Amino acid sequence: MLAAMPSENNRRLELFRLALVLIDRGNRELPHPLSLHFDDVLHQARILSDDPSAVSPDVTPQAVQLANDMRVYEGLRDALAGVNSIGDVSQTVAHEVLRNLEPRLASAY
After folding, report:
1. For 20-55, how does the pLDDT look when each residue is reduced to its tens digit (9 = 90+)?
2. Looking at the 3D structure of the chain, how many domains does it have?
């Protein structure tokens, strides 16, 4: 049972994932701080996935984890293609990103 629980690394993406889960469930009105967090993590992760040497003390652990996952999982990169902010995430896109965000774990859907 413990093996099915997300690791500490995967928990770093909890708020990023929460935004996607809410959209996937049809909620388009996200709290502003959650939207800002999503956008910041995505922006930082894109920079890091293109140039890992761009890491600095200002980069959040969530962005590092997402950047690593984007480099490892092609499906995640593809699912996030064209997404520049939370406003670009439709219910279909959210579902696809969630499906590819943690491909090592069984889906909760």
Report:
1. 999 999 998 899 999 999 999 999 999 999 998 888
2. 1
